[in-house]
């Protein structure tokens, strides 16, 4: 004779077990007011799975991407300038952008000759698909994907169009959000500078000998 | 001074006014409102925002995750997702708003009682997002509804949605009952529902539309190329196989009926059904499986393309059958009689290309609506926001001053109408459905009634609609209605360069972006002759199999939701999915829209901590999670009762209807592209292809559980064997303007939902001439009516859940 409902009770047992672990495993956490800041949930995570946003938040991985930003060499709080910005207005980001949300005006000097600086740089964040191709293909490490995701606004017509002033963040900020990528890029730049210096020295030697 | 009125000069008046305001107008009642009523009222309002259970696209998945245990929107008093607009305060417009869907959205909004709030979630809902240029996309829900909070991002993560909710709560705290919209005198403000005409008609703008004239100059349309040459003999470049099949067809259907052309055979469109029947019924050919059907718009013809495979005779080579329809009055014979799986695909070709299929039982538009002007996939069809034939748009660089697409068009919106169109005289075309004329099965003297399930319905897994004819509570007929999320993937894809299509493939089946990436990469790499490095191949397999786990966890969780086990199984499943998404985020930077594969490798090598975590997940946690799910559900009496014997798809029908993936394998056909035509390095791994003969909902459920176990096997092998040479996974040279040699290719992979195929025709430039996606979710729906007939309404929900569709892929 088949007894109905046994499997049902077994299934409910699993639910009950889960219910209990939320108290036993996470007991200390449940009844302490200490929230943990940035949380990285592990494979062995049991019990309460909830991250108490906004008091706690998930640890973002370095590669996390939301909107693109432009980088200038400097400290946080400083303003970018034509000397410190890295962008050369080469346009590769605008060319690789799938929804074509990047607009660049190449700068001109006093005589009207084109210079490798952007005079206007606009990203329409309402079209941007956060794919990160611009950052991936930029040859100058000038455009990067930002981590800031708390970007809800009450209007979109002005604040969602990011112009060159709004886009620029400092290298200090970038080094903080992307420590590994920053170290790698710095090492590469350093090696490149050394190589160039060595090449220049060699050229000088050749000149001397001649 | 008459009437005691004091005349004052202006300065005195303002002084007096100030005095009066200070002493007289501010009564205790006002203070009461400011200090007591408003705070209490706003506190109540902002902490009990009940969202409407309503999702449109990819963002909806993140919205569901926000409601699940990791982010737990309940902490904000907003966990009560209401299925009825009449009980909801908050509409989270989560995803792409299409023209076909916007009348429903406006109607839902109108049905919500005041006070009501709107969050526009993601770039699409806010302004059209990456799909803005599409012909079926509304550039922002705020064109119709008043939006309170916008979130940029594609998609915003659950935490970003919570931030938006907090922003909305702050906005509510600033409100005062004295000036809120809903306590103002006068009738309630209702938004008129837009009409679907030759294009979307905003009825508030009738006069503007009538007065609007077409722009003087339009950008040049994309160029045509000529159809591939017909090659009568092998000497001209036709493959031996094509010559052989063509000569046999010529014998069978009449001389001159079939000509080889490269790898394919071109048949007279009037003789298609004869040719098809011959190819299917000849025992040594036995092409019983029509994998893909599409059309290419060439200069001189519309070329219909059929990709045929043989499941009954796995040793047969695949065959590409073609037919060329005349450009002026394109038509062909329908193949639904030979392969019923052609049904929806032929309707799609009719809808998008305007090729008429004679003999099709129900030929009408499938993605757009009846009455829409034009066939949008034709190359000379230009969207309202059309800017240039191919990306990169010249307006973006060097003199790239920002300009919204709206500023370039006369009506300031993504619409265009035929010249002289008068919206006030327009009468929308009625929807026509197949008539149902069978007698009542229950011998009840009741009328048959037609019921619409969807497009806004919690059980339809997105904006999908089923129009069912009921006899009592039994289904007599069912017609799937789709296109509510048709966001013009292929049209945009043909304008994109090859690399730009990667992030768009993420948004096809947005649960499985990694394996979509893989399918596209594999196809284009075949055309380019590129081979990724060993390490990249392993990474790809690991990602694709993790994706299969993600998808099956999700679909099993939600199948149970559909059966009425509200949210508990889904919550458990989502929890495991979240941990896999952490891995994706770690490697690719995004939880859902990974955009991780590149031609010849992956975007970036794995971070150091990836493999240890993946290994622990795959060996320790996930096997246990699958056991739990299995133990929790598989022998549960209610599940057995609801699923066994329901929605049966017999083996022959499954093949004939071109079903794929777990639906096909659940009907007893052990067919899997990973085995039938191994791609990447799947030939190195040991795994089984589970199949069950029953063909019911329960079989499909069990297939998914079994497939998850097989995926774990593959993952364990792949993680063990992956070569450790770090840094080799990226392509040797990163090129943003890759050119693909001219030619055509149909590439396919086994996605969690079934066979995902990409058919690409290249003309040698940097963007595809034709880019077609064979979407398993779309084609699996062809057999939906067959599975549902005779069952109860409640079963339809379970059957649909067991097919496991994703609307991003169904409608593309």
Give an account of the 3D structure.
The complex is a heterodimer of chains A (210) and B (812). Chain A is 36% helix and 17% strand. In chain A, strand 4 and strand 5 form a beta hairpin. Chain A is of the alpha/beta class and 210 residues long. In chain A, the strands form three sheets. Chain A has a three-stranded mixed beta sheet with strand order 6-3-8. A three-stranded antiparallel beta sheet of chain A has the order 4-5-7. Chain A folds into two domains: 53 residues, no CATH class; 110 residues, Alpha-Beta Plaits (2-Layer Sandwich), CATH 3.30.70. In chain A, helix 6 packs across helix 7. The model of chain A has no long low-confidence stretch (mean pLDDT 85). The N terminus of chain B is likely disordered. In chain B, helix 3 packs across helix 6. In chain B, the strands form seven sheets. Chain B has a five-stranded mixed beta sheet, with helices on one face. In chain B, strands 1-2-3 form a three-stranded parallel beta sheet. In chain B, strands 13-14-15 form a three-stranded antiparallel beta sheet. The longest helix of chain B is centred in the last third of the chain and has 30 residues. Chain B is an alpha+beta fold. In chain B, strand 16 and strand 17 form a beta hairpin. Classes of the chains: A alpha/beta (210), B alpha+beta (812). At the A-B interface, helix 1, strand 2, helix 3, strand 4 and strand 5 of A face helix 5, strand 3, helix 6, helix 12 and helix 15 of B.
Oligomer: heterodimer
Note the overall shape of chain B. Answer: globular
Under CATH, the topology of the largest domain in chain A can be stated as Alpha-Beta Plaits
Largest sheet of chain A: 3 strands, mixed
- How much of the sequence lies in strands of chain B comes to 5-15%
Class from helix and strand fractions of chain A: alpha/beta
Strand content of chain A: 15-25%
């Amino acid at each position: 004779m088949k007894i109905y409902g046994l499997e049902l009770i077994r299934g409910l047992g699993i639910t009950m077990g889960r219910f209990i672990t939320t108290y036993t495993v996470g007991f200390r956490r449940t009844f302490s007011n200490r929230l943990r800041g940035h949380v990285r949930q592990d494979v062995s995570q049991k019990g309460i799975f909830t991250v108490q946003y906004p008091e706690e938040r998930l640890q973002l991985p370095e590669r996390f991407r939301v909107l693109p930003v432009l980088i200038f060499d400097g400290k946080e709080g400083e303003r970018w300038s034509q000397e410190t910005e890295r962008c050369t207005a080469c346009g590769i980001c605008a060319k690789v952008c799938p929804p074509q949300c990047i607009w660049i005006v190449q700068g001109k000097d006093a005589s009207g000759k084109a210079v490798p600086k952007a005079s206007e740089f606009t990203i329409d964040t309402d079209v941007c698909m956060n794919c990160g191709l611009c950052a991936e293909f930029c040859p100058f490490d000038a455009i990067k994907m930002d981590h800031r995701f708390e970007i809800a606004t009450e209007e979109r017509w002005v604040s969602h169009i990011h112009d060159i002033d709004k886009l620029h963040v400092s290298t200090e900020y970038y080094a903080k959000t992307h420590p590994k990528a920053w170290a790698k890029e710095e090492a590469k730049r350093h090696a490149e500078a050394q190589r160039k210096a060595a090449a220049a020295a060699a050229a000088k030697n050749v000149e001397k000998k001649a | 001074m008459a009437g005691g009125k004091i005349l004052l000069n202006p300065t005195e008046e303002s002084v007096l006014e100030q005095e009066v305001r200070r002493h007289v107008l501010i009564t205790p009642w006002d203070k009461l409102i400011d200090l007591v009523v408003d705070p209490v009222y706003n506190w109540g309002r902002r902490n009990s925002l009940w969202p409407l259970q309503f999702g449109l696209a990819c963002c909806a998945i993140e919205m569901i995750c926000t409601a699940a245990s990791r982010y737990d929107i309940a902490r904000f008093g907003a966990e009560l997702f209401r299925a009825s607009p009449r009980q909801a305060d908050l509409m989270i417009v989560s995803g792409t708003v299409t023209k076909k869907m916007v009348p429903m959205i406006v109607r839902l909004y109108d049905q919500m009682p005041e006070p009501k709030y709107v969050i526009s979630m993601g770039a699409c809902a806010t302004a059209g997002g990456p799909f803005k240029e599409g012909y079926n996309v509304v550039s922002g829900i705020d064109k119709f509804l008043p939006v309170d909070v916008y979130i940029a991002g594609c998609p915003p993560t659950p935490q970003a949605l919570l931030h938006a909710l907090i922003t909305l709560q702050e906005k509510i705290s600033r409100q005062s009952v004295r000036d809120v919209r809903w306590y103002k005198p006068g009738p309630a403000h209702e938004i008129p529902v837009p009409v679907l005409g030759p294009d979307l008609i905003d009825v508030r703008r009738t006069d503007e539309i009538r007065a609007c004239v077409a722009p003087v100059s339009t950008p040049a349309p994309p160029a045509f190329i000529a159809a591939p040459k017909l090659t009568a003999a092998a000497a001209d470049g036709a493959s031996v196989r094509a010559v052989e099949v063509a000569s046999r067809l010529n014998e069978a259907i009449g001389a001159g009926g079939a000509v080889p052309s490269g790898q394919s055979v071109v048949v007279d469109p009037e003789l298609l059904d004869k040719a098809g029947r011959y190819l299917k019924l000849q025992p040594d050919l036995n092409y019983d499986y029509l994998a893909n059907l599409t059309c290419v718009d060439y200069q001189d013809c519309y070329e219909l393309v059929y990709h045929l495979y043989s499941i009954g005779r796995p040793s047969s080579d695949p065959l590409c059958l073609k037919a060329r329809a005349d450009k002026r009055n394109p038509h062909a014979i329908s193949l639904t009689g030979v392969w019923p799986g052609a049904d929806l695909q032929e309707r799609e070709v009719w809808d998008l290309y305007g090729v008429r299929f004679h003999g099709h039982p129900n030929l009408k538009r499938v993605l757009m609506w009846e009455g829409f002007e034009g066939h949008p996939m034709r190359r000379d069809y230009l969207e309202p926001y059309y800017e240039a034939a191919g990306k990169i748009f010249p307006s973006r660089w060097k003199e790239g001053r920002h300009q919204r697409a709206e500023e370039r068009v006369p009506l300031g919106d993504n619409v265009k109408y035929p010249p002289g169109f008068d919206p006030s005289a327009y009468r929308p075309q009625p929807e026509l459905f197949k008539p149902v004329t069978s007698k009542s099965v229950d011998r009840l003297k009741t009328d048959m009634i037609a019921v619409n399930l969807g497009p806004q319905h919690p059980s339809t897994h997105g904006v999908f609609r089923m129009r069912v004819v009921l006899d009592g509570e039994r289904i007599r007929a069912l017609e799937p209605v789709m296109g509510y999320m048709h966001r013009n993937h292929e049209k945009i894809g043909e304008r994109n360069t090859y690399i730009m299509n990667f992030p768009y493939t993420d948004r096809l089946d947005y649960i499985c972006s990694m394996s979509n990436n893989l399918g596209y990469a594999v196809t284009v790499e075949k055309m380019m002759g590129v081979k990724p490095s060993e390490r990249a191949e392993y990474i790809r397999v690991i990602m694709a199999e993790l994706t299969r786990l993600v998808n099956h966890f999700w679909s099993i969780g939600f199948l149970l939701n559909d059966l009425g086990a509200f949210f508990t199984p889904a919550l458990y499943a989502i929890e495991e999915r979240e941990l896999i998404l952490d891995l994706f985020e770690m490697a690719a930077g995004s939880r859902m829209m990974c955009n991780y594969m590149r031609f010849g490798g992956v975007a970036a090598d794995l971070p150091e901590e990836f493999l240890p975590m993946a290994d622990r997940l795959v060996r320790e946690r996930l096997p246990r999670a699958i056991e739990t799910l299995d133990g929790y559900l598989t022998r549960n009496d209610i599940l057995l009762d609801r699923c066994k014997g329901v929605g049966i798809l017999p083996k022959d029908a499954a093949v004939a209807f071109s079903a794929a993936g777990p639906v096909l394998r659940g009907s007893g056909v052990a067919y899997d592209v990973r085995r039938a035509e191994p791609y990447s390095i799947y030939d190195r791994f040991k795994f089984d292809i589970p199949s069950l003969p029953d063909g019911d909902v329960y079989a499909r459920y069990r297939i998914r559980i079994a497939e998850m176990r097989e995926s774990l096997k593959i993952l364990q092998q792949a993680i063990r064997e992956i070569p450790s040479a770090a840094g080799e996974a990226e392509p040797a040279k990163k090129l943003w303007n890759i050119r693909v040699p001219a030619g055509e290719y149909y590439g396919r992979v086994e996605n969690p939902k079934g066979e995902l195929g990409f058919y690409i025709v290249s003309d040698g430039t940097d963007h595809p001439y034709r880019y077609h996606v064979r979407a398993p979710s779309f084609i699996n729906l062809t057999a939906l009516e067959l599975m549902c007939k005779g069952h109860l309404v409640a079963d339809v929900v379970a059957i649909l859940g067991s097919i496991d569709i994703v609307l991003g892929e169904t409608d593309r």
